[in-house]
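In response to reviewer comment 3 from the previous cycle, which asked for concrete evidence that the modeling workflow produces usable outputs, we include below a single protein chain processed end to end. The sequence was submitted unchanged, and the resulting structure tokens are shown without manual editing.
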Amino acid sequence: SELQTAVANWLARSDLTTYIPDFVTIFEANANRRLRVRQMEATNTSMSFSSGSATLPTDYLLYRRFTHIGDTRTELQYEHPSYLQAAYPSAPAGVPALFTIEGTTIKLRPTTVSTFEFDYYQKISALSGTVNWLFSAHPDIYLFGSLVEAEAFGVNDARAAMWKTRVEMIYDEIEGLDNLTKGGGQMRAVGATP
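The workflow returned the following structure tokens.
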């Protein structure tokens, strides 16, 4: 409600009040397409596989890592769905080495009944009476992101562009802060090197 009040105040228009929740929802959809930061990382260890297939978590956006936790911890490699089907047309049992994603389903080959760690980026939860991490840490992006949508709705292109510039600056700052928390990256060769 505080965000809705702030958006209405910044717009200086009372006739858009009923539309403000829509503006917030549209901004959240944009943020989910744009951001991939540490606060969005999640690990799922309870996926239930049947014949090598399981349903992705409902808040799934993008995978980071898929690990088989068996006698030996094994990182599964992503392959295109057509390659996985061609390489394993009969879905044999064994120690999994490959996986793919088709729609809302993750598939692994060879198949097994075992435990996995699935690290992925999760959606930013919608504001609905509770505050999510993005609003807690960066309430300004919610305000300016909602104003972009409001001005676009009101066909005020100049002001929409102004707020969009502000939102882009905040996205860059959030991503920059995230990069600082990850430390320096190094390329490492896995396995034997020549």
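The helical segments are 2-11, 20-34, 81-87, 133-137, 139-153, 157-182. We consider this sufficient to address the reviewer's concern, and the full set will be provided in the supplementary archive.
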